[in-house]
TrEMBL record:
Biological source species: Candidatus Heimdallarchaeum endolithica
Names of required cofactors: Zn(2+)
The protein's name in its UniProt record: Creatininase family protein
Presence of keyword Metal-binding: yes
One Pfam family, short name: Creatininase
InterPro entries attached to this UniProt entry: Creatininase-like_sf, Creatininase/forma_Hydrolase
């Protein structure tokens, strides 16, 4: 059965066991991802993972994605769209409130963009604190075990070998393989003054928009990472669905 939330009727929603149902909310961004990847990469990956997990697990329902996130630091690359953190937090909060109104209380935010993390955690912390509500955050690129097993390291920065492999595995037709040979990258994210991190616009430390390793871009690795992440999310859904509290 299709478990995309938008295909349910109101009677379907009414009849769901709200103590067992887990709502997945895919979030991401529309921002530059180097000359090789589509600008929707972050939300396309999180949506894919959430939809596949909801196909696997009958307790999970995946919302349509919120494609735009906190990305103003990419704005000097053409195409990037962004919300201010205030607006983004408000959007997440309003979605939580709507779901809470209908009796849902178990949520997993499936995020695809690091710039969203602190805003999401603020809203999650607030709801878990004030209401009978359990919201969790799932971020595919944070699972060190999966990454080390597939690619031998766990560093994922931006539009690098890992992210490019993953989006290439999902949307082969929208990733420009002919660009791979001449890609350049910054070895790290941001800049430093001495040991102190200097938060920066992306164009201030990378010309191509890429940061991180570019040793091996591989659809096969991308597929392996995706499958393992979908299995992991499925485990989290089971735990949360059965969680008493
Ligand atoms: Zn990304």
């Amino acid at each position: 059965m299709n478990h995309n939330y938008q295909f349910l009727t109101w009677e379907d929603v009414k009849s769901l066991d709200k103590d067992k149902a887990v709502i997945l909310i895919p979030l991401g961004s529309i921002e530059q991802h180097g000359p090789q990847n589509p600008i929707g990469t972050d939300y396309l990956i999180s949506t894919y993972i959430a939809e596949k997990a909801s196909e696997k697990n009958p307790k999970a329902y995946s919302l349509p994605p919120i494609p735009i996130g906190v990305s103003s630091h990419h704005r000097n690359f053409p195409g990037t769209l962004w919300f201010s953190p205030d607006v983004f937090r408000s959007i997440v909060r309003e979605i939580f409130l709507s779901l809470k109104h209908h009796g849902f209380r178990k949520i997993i935010v499936v995020n695809g963009h690091g710039g969203n993390t602190s805003s999401i955690m603020e809203v999650i912390g607030d709801f878990n604190d004030r209401f009978d509500f359990i919201a969790l955050l799932f971020e595919w690129w944070k699972d060190e075990q999966i990454l080390k097993k597939v690619i031998g390291h766990s560093q994922v920065i931006h539009a690098d070998e890992v992210e490019t492999s993953v989006i290439w595995a999902i949307y082969e037709e929208y990733v420009k393989e002919e660009k791979f040979e001449k890609l350049t990258s910054s070895p790290m994210w941001g800049r430093y003054i001495g040991d102190l991190f200097l938060s920066s616009r992306t164009d201030q430390f990378t010309k191509s928009g890429i940061a991180g390793a570019l040793n091996e871009i591989s659809r096969e690795n991308g597929l392996k990472i995706l499958e393992a992440c979908i299995d992991k999310l499925d485990e989290h859904i089971k735990l949360l669905s059965n969680y008493k509290g």
